[in-house]
């Protein structure tokens, strides 16, 4: 299977990353919980306490699972001239300083998200911070797997000890920048907000601006605008100063600052006009600004963020000029009409940014709005799937929703959308849609309901394969069943099944090698990435494993994720105490492979 090996070999760039940092090779606010209640119940949320010094070592601990832009960074406006702006008079803020107990230490940065158990604080172990930074900065996000994205988001959000050889503020910026490129705008903002303003670095200022724009909230720049403009001589920060003066109800000062900031640019420059529109929304604002998109060639973070903040609709075709993460930002934006967010929300769900509950709530809003359109039809079918008293009618509605999808991404999105409704269908060997019902349930972690179908699925069917991976009580699978599954269906799905079962330890060593050889899955291959993730798993460094898993899934879809990469990801997660995530990633691999 040369194609698979060639794709997998691309991960060998990790060797260059290791060498490049000079270290030896290694041996909607805060996001909601994306899993249903009762799925591997999380530990109680700890009460905030003074932050202890990092512990030197620890044993691997179980992680409770929860379902829940490559745009210009140096200058969010694109290639524009820098503008000198007079600095505001210095204000003595010493009398307003936070007491010591309220300050945030750079030794540990992150937040506790509602419904999520945090990763252990030392989950990066003894990994060199420079190595982790290079991995995050070069990771081509978003990544293929919904479940790998969920676990990586949790890792990057958690209150984690800052590793050696990096500045804590810069490392927080790297974590937030990775989250932004994954589409996790709210999570990125939460990490940024855990750093006190007097600890900001230039890199953190840059990412903080991107985060404010990704969340459609330019007002978030106001506490940073003066110092940011002093540190970074770019038009974006000068315009931020003007916007913040306008939002503060100082239109005259704002107008003067705006005039200075846009000096040397065209009066019709859309970046200036959007800033002026924000400025005019403040108290005593008198500016009427019309935004025309006809001559705009590209959607940037600046244009998306300010347009969203001021209620200006971004043309659909412009989204094609930006990375897919911008659609996920759109899905999370509460001030955009639900019907306009629906398609983006389904895509965001496949990337782990949106949950089953979030999708159901969104379509409920669409239905209540009474507007006509495709969203209304989906909402009505969804209501039938949940509430009709006749099981046959509910299954028929589910089938309509599944069959209405027009791409692999939307097909998986519809499984997520219908996950809970599917979990209410009684198990029966008389139903023809058992495979899709099981896939829908497991897409959002309803494993208890899915396991009720064990006696109803056909041997070696896709439903059987999914349950063989999902069942936490299953210890061994017969090798002949795996090769038999290959004979009865997709070889690609069988390769993913074999890789997942081997990674979970459900094939004994001999069977694993035989099945891998039969299906051409070289699970014994070694390169810098396999060595790094295997070693991190054995050490129990859960956050490092999550990050390296993302590195191993750098693809917009599953077509370019090699089965042998899946094997190492599943095995490392299992070793690091994340077996529940490992099972769900393996299930997703079989579900989404063609």
For this entry, give a set of tags.
single chain, 594 residues, two-stranded antiparallel sheet, 29 helices, disordered N terminus
Question: How would you describe this structure to a colleague?
Answer:
This protein has a two-stranded antiparallel sheet. Helices cover 52% and strands 1% of the residues. The chain has helices spanning 2-9, 13-20, 129-138, 146-157, 168-182, 185-192, 202-214, 225-231, 235-247, 251-261, 270-279, 301-309, 325-332, 338-350, 356-369, 374-387, 391-403, 408-417, 419-423, 434-443, 447-451, 462-470, 479-488, 491-504, 509-519, 528-539, 542-551, 563-575, 579-592, and strands spanning 108-109, 160-161. The longest helix is centred in the first third of the chain and has 15 residues, at 168-182. It has 594 residues and is mainly α. It has a domain at 217-335. The two termini are 16 Å apart. It is globular and about 75 Å long.
